[in-house]
Recover the amino acids of this structure.
């Protein structure tokens, strides 16, 4: 018994109208037959036998009743979205008007609003990632995080599917995952989303479109067909689809995955931007029958692995939540209104030290700039950048000691106690503080990135990313950065716990101004005041749990809502996270927009710009964040504070830049440089400000060579481009020299190239030992006179000699420390 769809329309309309007790609108009548059939399939799947015993009329009534509920829910959702849109519009435009009233130029006001939103979404993300600590702990990384325990990862997946494994850690991790994604789903829906809940454990399905396309439709369908839960694929009569029917459906799914959705593109039709609140509302088409089937598919066709898929899902949904809560259910429309309002003034859309457009900032904020147009191109380009990271940043930890002056300058700016800041910095390297901070919502970036590393074939897919991450771990740079930010964050969280015992109006004017500049409102502060701070090591901490612990009755009594509580938590965590990236520099929204310049990943322009900017993010962020903060103080008339801030920053950075230079030279076997010259202190300032890559250019010119013996212009072009030219010179250049009968140094150049692109060999604590164990001798053998040229260059550039002479197995003297004093 099949229903003839073309003749059903009037019957369906009448049945649905009868079910909801009113006439349906013309808009609601659109696609009524499809909705009825969809409801029939869903009802049939629940109990096929009972469904097949029902008459045609009974089935229609049952489906119409469900479709009626869906129609009413859709109408209710539309009303909710209209109300939320009005609220968000008023909030955004009132904020814009207030900023303009403070003297901000039109697009500077827009940029500030986007900065607020960026901090807000970061806060949302940190809250939910803090809930996934048990999930991460359920899968223990090995070999510096490069390889995850496949058995533990499989146990986690099985527990999420509801299959008991006897692994208590996996069960705890699965529970944390399911609770977190459910909380996120509910919050997104409360903000205008419409995501249904699966009736089994949710796991994302990040199909690798390249691998899917390479397999071909027939092979992919053949592989996936045995893995599906066939009970979920029935027609409107409750009859399971046969292989041919299911293969036809899967064929359409293959086209969508393999083309990245391009098969649905209608030529000539504007694509536009869909309402973000509609994300995730589509029915899932692929249902695996069990965990083993999911894992089998993941092994062959997923991108990045299980934990990477989970991390990606939480990151995307956190971003969606932040955007719809800040800009309403359709953020794109609200931003266009805000942007057009600023455009009407006739001012240029250029903001910040790098003159970026706010539209470019918006693309970074929404994730559009990070969406790969050509996935394969994006992967290759990112792989090339990863190789530069693990080949060239093995000693970056030494340069990162300049975090100490930025740490204390930032604590001073926020009026945090220097004693507490120092104690917390020391404590932040310990496990107790790390665990406390992660669960309090102060989640380290490394925790999030660590979830990216489980992939099939151990280090098969994504091996460059694994090696880059592992190198950062082995160099201690990751641990250092996390600890510095953690120490600051704990200190600031304790300070906020203290000042929130005071009313908003009674706050010190400077404290209130700093909070307002982070987008914190009086309503946010009222919520914070209702929280009971946690006592941790004598400090009253305004933690995530403290703010979430406020019950709804207490909120209502204060005239507040759960929505206010949500916003207050995001503002708290986002504000602290943002300031921690002043303490240990991280790129802000303006800097990220300056790097991408409106381009997307997976385009030639986008990948070129990202490669050009590699290793330049630190100096760019230094200008945007710290020098931008000093400029803002000057702009608002607080010139004394601007001068004091700049002086403290410049002095601290130069001092620690000098220390970093001397440490790197000592590690490389050189005597300290003469510190009595202006040349040295210029280099120290450049090093401290993160522009050490320009130091060689300043002193030897664009045509000179850097310390690695490579042309200085390669530093400015970026390491990827420089390496490409170096590879060309190694191959074609040597071929040309040989053809002209000239001497080549192909062996020495090949060794130098290989070393600068190999993981671990350039780690700051291993480099010297490996050099003197044989690499320098090999370099001398391949290029006679190489070691002598090294000594001559050091003496010419800085008047240095080597305390551990190149080519010698052991040093014959200690470093000449008096050389630092010019003696």
């Amino acid at each position: 018994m099949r229903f003839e769809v073309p003749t059903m329309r009037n019957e369906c309309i009448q049945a649905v109208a009868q079910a909801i007790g009113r006439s349906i609108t013309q808009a609601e009548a659109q696609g009524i037959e499809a909705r009825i059939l969809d409801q029939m399939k869903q009802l049939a799947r629940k109990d096929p036998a009972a469904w097949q015993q029902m008459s045609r009329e009974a089935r229609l009534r049952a489906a119409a009743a469900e479709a009626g509920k869906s129609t009413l829910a859709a109408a209710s959702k539309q009303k909710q979205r209209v109300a939320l849109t009005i609220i968000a519009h008023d909030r955004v435009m009132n904020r814009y008007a207030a900023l303009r009233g403070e003297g901000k130029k039109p697009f500077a006001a827009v940029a500030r609003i986007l900065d607020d939103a960026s901090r807000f979404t970061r806060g949302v993300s940190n809250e939910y990632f803090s809930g996934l600590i048990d999930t991460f702990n359920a899968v223990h990384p090995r070999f510096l995080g490069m390889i995850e325990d496949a058995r533990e990862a499989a146990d986690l997946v099985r527990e999420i599917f509801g299959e008991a494994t006897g692994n208590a850690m996996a069960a705890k991790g699965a529970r944390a995952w399911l609770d977190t994604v459910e909380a996120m789903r509910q919050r997104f829906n409360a903000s205008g989303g419409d995501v249904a809940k699966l009736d089994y454990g949710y796991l994302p399905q990040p199909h690798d479109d390249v691998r899917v396309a390479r397999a071909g439709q027939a092979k992919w369908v053949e592989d996936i067909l045995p893995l599906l839960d066939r009970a979920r694929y029935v027609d409107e009569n409750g009859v399971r689809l046969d292989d041919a029917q299911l293969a036809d459906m899967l064929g359409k799914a293959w086209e969508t995955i393999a083309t990245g959705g391009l098969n649905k593109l209608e030529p000539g039709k504007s694509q536009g931007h869909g309402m973000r609140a509609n994300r995730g509302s589509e029915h899932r088409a692929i249902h695996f029958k069990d965990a083993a089937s999911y894992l089998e598919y993941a092994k062959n066709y997923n991108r990045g692995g299980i934990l990477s898929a989970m991390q990606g899902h939480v990151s995307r949904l956190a971003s969606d939540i932040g955007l719809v809560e800040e800009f309403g259910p359709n953020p794109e429309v609200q931003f266009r209104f805000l942007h057009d309002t600023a455009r009407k003034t006739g001012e240029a859309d250029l903001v910040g030290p790098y003159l970026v457009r706010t539209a470019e900032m918006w693309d970074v904020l929404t994730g559009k700039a990070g969406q790969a147009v050509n996935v394969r191109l994006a992967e290759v380009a990112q792989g090339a950048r990863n190789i530069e990271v693990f080949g060239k940043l093995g000693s970056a930890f030494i340069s990162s000691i300049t975090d100490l002056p930025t740490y204390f300058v930032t604590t001073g700016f926020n009026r945090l106690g220097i004693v507490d800041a120092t104690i917390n910095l020391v404590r932040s390297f310990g496990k107790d503080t790390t665990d406390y901070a992660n669960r309090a919502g102060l989640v380290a970036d490394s925790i999030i990135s660590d979830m990216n590393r489980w992939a099939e074939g151990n280090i098969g897919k994504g091996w460059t990313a694994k090696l880059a991450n592992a190198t950062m771990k082995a160099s201690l740079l990751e641990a250092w950065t996390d600890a510095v930010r953690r120490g600051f964050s704990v200190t600031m969280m304790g300070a906020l716990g203290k000042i929130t015992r005071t009313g908003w109006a009674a706050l010190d004017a400077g404290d209130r101004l700093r909070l307002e500049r982070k987008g914190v409102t009086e309503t946010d502060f009222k919520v914070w005041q209702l929280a009971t701070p946690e006592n941790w090591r004598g400090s009253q901490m305004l933690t995530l749990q403290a703010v979430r612990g406020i019950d709804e009755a207490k909120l209502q009594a204060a005239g507040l809502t759960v929505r206010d509580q949500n916003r207050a938590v995001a503002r708290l965590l986002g504000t602290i996270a943002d300031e921690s990236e002043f303490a240990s520099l991280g790129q802000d929204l303006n800097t990220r927009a300056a790097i991408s310049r409106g381009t997307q990943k997976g385009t030639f322009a986008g990948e070129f710009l990202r490669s050009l900017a590699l290793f330049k993010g630190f100096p760019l962020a230094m200008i945007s964040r710290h020098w931008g903060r000093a400029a803002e103080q000057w702009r608002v008339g607080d010139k004394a504070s601007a001068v004091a801030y700049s002086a403290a920053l410049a002095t601290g950075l130069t001092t620690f830049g000098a220390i970093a230079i001397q440490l790197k030279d000592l590690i490389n076997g050189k005597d300290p440089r003469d510190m009595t010259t202006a040349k040295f202190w210029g280099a120290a300032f450049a090093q401290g400000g993160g522009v050490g890559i320009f130091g060689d250019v300043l002193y030897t010119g664009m045509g000179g060579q850097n310390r690695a013996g490579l042309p200085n212009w390669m530093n400015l072009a970026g390491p990827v481009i420089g390496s490409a030219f170096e590879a060309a010179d190694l191959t074609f250049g040597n071929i040309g020299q040989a053809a002209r009968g000239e001497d080549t140094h192909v062996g020495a150049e090949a060794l130098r190239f290989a070393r600068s692109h190999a993981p671990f060999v350039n780690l700051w604590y291993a480099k010297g030992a490996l050099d003197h164990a044989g690499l320098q001798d090999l370099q001398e053998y391949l290029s006679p006179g190489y070691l002598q040229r090294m000594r001559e260059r050091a003496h010419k550039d800085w008047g240095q000699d080597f305390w551990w002479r190149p080519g010698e197995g052991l040093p014959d003297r200690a470093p000449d420390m008096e050389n630092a004093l010019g003696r």
